[in-house]
Amino acid sequence: MIILKKLENIKNNARKLFYDLKDKLNSDFNNPRIQKRLVIISSVILLTLLLIVGIYNSFAFYEDIDDGVSLIKAEVGELYVNNYDYTLLVYLNDGDGNYRLVSDIPSSGYNFKEYFCLKGSTFEYNDRTKMTKATLGVKDVCSVYFDRVG
Question: Which stretches of 8-139 are assigned E, i.e. beta strand?
């Protein structure tokens, strides 16, 4: 019996503490100074989150999309890339006058015809060694054309 009375007393004290705390918090949230601080803190948190999302989305992300056409990367031949984004598009002419985009520089059966770079980079190709060399100044896209021999 004494234990039940003590448990009831603890329960009543806990309930009283809970309601006292609830009333205190409600009165604090109704205080204009507290509300102003909450608005400021909430605004700072929201702006910080928006800033993080904005910075995350502003960085360029590269993904390899397998669409059947590969772009030549820096490891092909002697193409040296030094802290620049460089895209090399290789086109082959099989003698029908139409050029098709391919994924590799041809190793035989084709002669180098010409190149065009959008922002002034230069491209060299040695037909004898089948090696390439590019001189890059800015982020650039170069198209290189090869014609079938014979």
Answer: 86-93, 99-102, 110-117, 122-126, 131-135
**Gap between the Cα atoms of 125 and 133, Å rounded:** 6
Task: Please state, rounded to an integer, the average pLDDT across all residues of the chain.
Answer: 76
> pTM score, two decimals?
0.43
| Token duo for residue 58 | 């502003």
Rounded to 10 degrees, what is the CA torsion of 44, 49, 50, 55? 120
d(Cα 45, Cα 38) in Å, to the nearest integer?
A: 10
Q: Whole-angstrom Cα distance, residue 89 to residue 104? A: 9
Query: What single DSSP character describes residue 82?
Result: S
Q: What is the pLDDT of residues 36-52, one digit of tens each?
A: 888 899 899 999 999 88
Query: Longest Cα pair distance anywhere in the chain, in angstroms?
Result: 110
